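Hi all, long-time lurker, first post. I run a small reading group and we've been trying to get comfortable going from sequence to structure in the token notation. Rather than ask abstract questions, I figured I'd post a concrete chain and ask someone more experienced to write out its structure so we can walk through it together at our next meeting. Sequence below, copied exactly:
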Amino acid sequence: MRPARLRQRPARRVGLVDGRVRGVALAEAYPEWLRAVAAFSPAVRPGDAVFTGVDRLRGTPVGLWCGRQDNFLKDVRALARALPEPPVRAAWADGRHNFAYWGTVIPDAFALLGAALTPPRKA
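-- Answer (accepted) --
Happy to help. Here is the structure in token form:
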């Protein structure tokens, strides 16, 4: 059962993932609650809960960013391939698993999240 605060109408929220992939896991558990997920170098492994629940992300825009020198790159790319729909953003640039890299992708991630929060324009 969903927590009481999630049983209300879907909130305008997004998930920014930390090193323990809470945002992706939250989006899988409550797909109607989050509008988009931006994951910076999520610490995922094939076979973990994120991979086994990946089908629940259908319809949720997912952005994945990971540095080419990050130890998680191979697994983040595998997650991109495992998603039920291609990620709306997937970028692999020079960088490690640190804020020096993540700071370079924040503008792109926030653009994705902002687009998910922007209501459709009336004709």
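A couple of things your group might point at:
The radius of gyration is 14 Å.
The first strand starts at residue 13 and ends at 17.
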